[in-house]
Amino acid sequence: MARQPIFNGLRSCLTGPRKELSPFHSFNRQLRRPYSIQSQEDAIAKLPNIDPDALSITKTTTPKELVPPEELIFGRTFTDHMLSIEWTASEGWLRPRITPYQNLSLDPATCVFHYAFEAFEGMKAYKSPNGDLRLFRPDRNMRRFNRSVERIALPTFDGKALTELISRFVRMEERFVPSSRGYSLYLRPTLIGTQRTLGVGPPGSALLYLIASPVGPYYPTGFKAISLAATSSAVRAWPGGVGDRKLGANYAPCIVPQLEAAKRGYHQNLWLFGEDEIVTEAGTMNFFVCLREKGTGKKMMWTAPLDGTILEGVIRESVLELAREKLGPEGWEVEEKNYTMRDLAEAADEGRLIEAFGTGTAAVVSPVRKINWRGRDVDCGLKAGEEVGEVTNRMKGWIEGIQYGDVEHRWSVKL
Length: 415
What we know:
Layout: H1 10-14, H2 25-31, H3 41-45, E1 56-57, E2 81-88, E3 92-93, E4 97-100, H4 111-115, E5 118-120, E6 123-127, E7 133-136, H5 138-151, H6 159-172, E8 184-193, E9 205-215, E10 226-231, H7 255-263, E11 268-273, E12 278-282, E13 285-292, E14 299-303, H8 314-327, E15 333-336, H9 341-349, E16 353-360, E17 364-373, E18 376-379, H10 390-403, E19 412-414
Parallel strand pairs: 1-4, 10-11, 10-17, 14-15
Antiparallel strand pairs: 2-3, 2-4, 2-9, 5-8, 6-7, 6-8, 7-19, 8-9, 11-12, 12-13, 13-14, 13-16, 16-17, 17-18
Helix pairs in contact: 5-6
């Protein structure tokens, strides 16, 4: 039986005679997969994995015009092509394809729409001063991606094989990778459940796809200090939940609290947890503080531990490793520990809070000027007119130097 194309576009699905919309309807009929809590992991593990050698490429006949770097808005401009790989519980991972960027055609009953079977990653491709294309620690993204999809009963995959396909895709889209410092090609691998059913259970089919967007600085103001609204009325993550996985379902509930913070003049939320108001993350970023220990004056760097509520950020891990390597010899103590908003306010009041910053793939490093908490603004150590602290600026320089190939490093993968 001929395969139904997945990329027919939604317009054709919404006009004309009623037709089967699911790209996997033939597989759904064959599977008749009953839903139960019984594991089929052993059988699925024996199915074919992703095979880069089977890649097929169809190039666009209508290449897009490049948007000037200074006009780029994060996530609004996309490249000419996309990578897609289908999966079924009967056949495993099918042949990967690079095709022109286009719409997906999915049945209204597709499980991703109803039960949030969706996980994604955020990566970037960089262009060095001599024109090399590079990825930054892609093995970490693949590890996190697999942990995310596994948590919601979507199929796992060979991370090295997907990285190879992403590398080929980036080389094909090279003209979209900006050469200006601070700019990059943002990569968004996404995996969704595609089985056409309203039954609640592990999907019998899935689609992994990759789209890419040339981007500049994440915040419209560029590299400037941001302000945070400490938030305890809404909870981003909780013990036993999925706050440590990169799932779309984690992000939508955070929008309303962010809008409320914006109405009060703050860029993002600082998520607090529990009666003690433990500091967790800032917006969609991991969060770091630099302060002096009470009594001894020892310089400390703190960030929340990976306790199941904190996303395992690639930049977070990199900052911790660089801090221990480069700041440790200067007398800094780097800790992953729980601390409270009261701890920060007390340090600020006593002049011990040196600086604070957020980290993430999109923003890389974002300095924080103040945190609004219980009706007051807690100063995070920046002087008037100062946009970035010394440690934050050094981290930015160290990480970007690796990302853009200024220094050769094991984290930078040349394509």
